[in-house]
From TrEMBL:
Annotated Acyl-CoA dehydrogenase/oxidase N-terminal domain residues: 31-112
Residues spanning the membrane: none
GO term, biological process aspect, one: L-leucine catabolic process
Pfam families registered for this protein in UniProt: Acyl-CoA_dh_2, Acyl-CoA_dh_N
GO molecular function: 3-methylbutanoyl-CoA dehydrogenase activity; flavin adenine dinucleotide binding
Protein name per the record: Acyl-CoA dehydrogenase
Keyword presence, Iron-sulfur: no
This protein's UniProt keywords: Flavoprotein, Oxidoreductase
Biological source species: Rhodococcus koreensis
Top-level taxonomy: Bacteria, Bacillati, Actinomycetota, Actinomycetes, Mycobacteriales
Record-annotated Acyl-CoA dehydrogenase C-terminal domain positions: 243-381
Amino acid sequence: MTVITEQKIWSDAPATADGWIARAREVSAILARDAVERDRAGGAPFDEVRLLKDSGLVTLLGPTEFGGAGQPWETAYQVVREIARGDGSLGQLLGYHYLWAWAVRLVGTAPQIGAVEELYTSNRFLFGGAVNPRDTDLTIVDRGDTLVYNGEKSFSTGGRATDLTVLEGIIEGTATHVFAIVPTAQDGIVFRGDWDNLGQRLTDSGTVEINDVEVDWSGAAGFVDKEFQPLVYNTLNFPALEIVFANFYVGIARGALDTAADYTRTRTRPWPYGGDDKELATDEWYLREGYGDLQSKLWAAEAFVDQVNREANAVLHDARENLTEQARGDLAVRIAAAKIRAADVALEIGTKVFELTGARATSNTVGLDIFWRNVRTHTLHDPVAYKRREVGGHLLTGELPEPTWYT
């Protein structure tokens, strides 16, 4: 039996942002105890999701009138970072959940926003999404009062452990995209359970088949009388997700650095052939230099991501009608830059920690590889080179990224 199956009861909900971040730190510590063992076992993260629900973190962004914490995105980013510090897979799951829970605010109508937020908050539901843009879109047949989705997606983060799934497809014979939220547990949604990748193994992000999933037209996000109501705010979906990425990247990096430092304090042996012999590894100059370099780089990345978190928070919580194309583009560039820094430092730390811990730290019983595997896997989500190009183009010409599925 793994540690994660231990029952944890929280008697009350935190009243402040700091309290919720402390709660996330507590959950992260529970997840970290057997993260390596659970990673190797794989499967769907049912027990882990139960922990997120029991802790109240799933409804962090949910309105207080429905039993949620009513916290802003800035708190959610820090919570994602803390969870990823203990388990990168669960940091991703929770971060994606927050984005998909907010998606109704990105594109939905006022009645849809109220209905969805009450549904997921009052029931502590977890969101997943079958919205991989690189696949052929799901096809939608308009049957008058309802829409029927069919098709397949090769990625579906959260998979079997979710309660609600976000679908996206194109109405047959048109170019009209439609988002809708449906219950995960239904015959028409079939998860193959084929997620078997290098890292992020507990996200259950494998293939999903959508077979005749029916949605009432009233559930077509942002549509009124079958006509979509466009806003610039609608295009925030990907930037809002990418800043979530940056936060769980630096969270994974922090977990790697802390784990390595603890190993060095307790198990790394000093090098006896350098002419400057030390009794303790923590007194070795090259280890102090190496850890100092990584710590300073991570502090810098965390500080920059924190600043961009505040900028994204201000936009996401402002009135939707206020967002201009210029402001949207400027924020997208800043988020792209934050993702670049977070990805680079997390990959460097995930590799360099082995040079600072020593050969014995490569033992599978140590499991230090989990951090690199997790961040290496997810940073391939979309090419970081294109993020650098966006930032460079903005600096040189003032060019704004064109809103797409990946900008």
